[in-house]
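Students often ask why we bother encoding 3D structure as a string. The short answer is that it lets us treat folding as translation between two languages. Here is a chain of 86 residues written in the first language.
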Amino acid sequence: MHLAVGTAMSREGLDRLFADQPAVMNTEQVSALLSLPRSTVTKWIRDTTIPAYKVGGTWLIPRDELKEKLWEGSNQRPEVSGDDAD
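And here it is in the second language, the structure alphabet:
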């Protein structure tokens, strides 16, 4: 499963998208998963849009941190229930 940029996704959808991914990903893996050029992934890393750590000459992207960052930037409305409902 790959994500087309601009696609709205639920938290469950993100969980499914990332389910088979390794705990730590590289730019090539993130690029393939998000259907983006590697140059865009690298730009997002440099702009701190997505979390990453450089070890030697390799960027390492923690899967769960990336997934959370994508969720935080989602245009999906949080679920409202019980006392929080208007």
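Translate back mentally: The CA atoms of residues 6 and 81 lie 27 Å apart. Keep this in mind for the problem set.
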